[in-house]
Amino acid sequence: MGDHYFMTGFPGFIARAIMKKWMRNDKHIDRVTLLVEPHLAELAQKELNELANEEHNSCEWFSIVHGDITETNLGIDAAINQDIQRSVTHVIHLAAIYDLAVSKELAYRVNVIGTEKVNEWAKTLPNLKRYIYFSTAFVSGNREGRIFENELDKHQGFKNHYEETKFEAEKRVREVMTDLPTTIIRPGIVVGDSKTGETSKFDGPYFMLNVFDRLRSLPFIPYIGLGRAEGNFVPVDYLVDATTFFIHADVAISKTYHLTDPSPYKMKDVYHMLMRSYLGKKPFGIVPVFSVNGIMSFSSIRRWLNIEKEVLAYFSCKAQFDCSQTIQDLQGSGISCPDLAHTLDTMATFYEQHKDDEDKQIKVK
User: Fold this and answer.
1) In terms of domains, do 114 and 224 share one?
2) Does the pTM exceed 0.85?
3) In this predicted model, what pLDDT tens digit does every residue of 91-101 receive, in sequence order?
4) Name one GO molecular function term (predicted).
5) What are the start-end ranges of the H helices in the chain?
6) Are residues 213 and 99 part of one domain?
7) Contact 3, 89 (CB under 8 A)
8) Which pLDDT tens digit goes with each residue over 288-312?
């Protein structure tokens, strides 16, 4: 019997990118089951069909199952669940609320309770070879200095409910690591494909592009603060390649990996390079972060600039994500994180082409 992969989070950005890679070439897989909430089923099927057409692949080896990660047995029909439980070999848990401005109640229900339910379900699988849990490097919260991959709870505070609930969820996953062959993936801020620029949502550094686009007619655009914090951005293709490698690597069992940039740029440099790529301009002058925070307290300004206020905290939090374990375990794989500077032109071009696509823009409140 070949491998049967079960994945949550489709048709989200990372899950879609993983499916695209699997369709291109993954000799390990016989079957893929995607857990999708019923209200997203039509969109998920459309996305799968488009991917299959793009990659000239048949649709025979993957299927969509309706469910809800916050329910017992993930809300899967009993008969279908029984069939899946017998054969699933790999679980990839991606489903989460990623919005920095999310309410605590919603974030806790999906990110924490949802992960608890996936943990419980994974324990029922007799043929499980690997449980991949997608956390985030920002479970470090407001910690500064060097953050190591084996660290989690250092009594830190958090910049938003997204970070806090992903921290709580990762704690739950660590509790089952002795029972399940688990690998925890902690990405930095995920951006579009390094070669094509393709992304499904304009968040993270794309908020800067939204601001540049709004202010492009001004004679100059200032820096936001001193920008001394590191901007840890990773292209989705690196994340997918590394994760796919770790899914099959025995060395990855019971480990946590920072899929972060090993040579990140300071936020000031990212801001500068991104403005140059998009507008052909250089920033001039500095507006303190606390002043921008004040301005961003007005919802009308946030919506006009199309940027979430919570983004500003990442301009000043000086965390350095050590990824030594990741680099060591990827040795010989040919997989490495591209230099951000070499991807920004592609990022800016894709943004320019798709900035008016409402499905890609975050609904700023």
Assistant:
1) no
2) yes
3) 999 999 998 98
4) alcohol-forming very long-chain fatty acyl-CoA reductase activity
5) 13-24, 41-54, 78-87, 104-107, 114-122, 161-175, 206-214, 236-248, 267-279, 289-295, 299-305, 324-330, 344-354
6) no
7) yes
8) 999 999 999 999 999 999 999 999 9
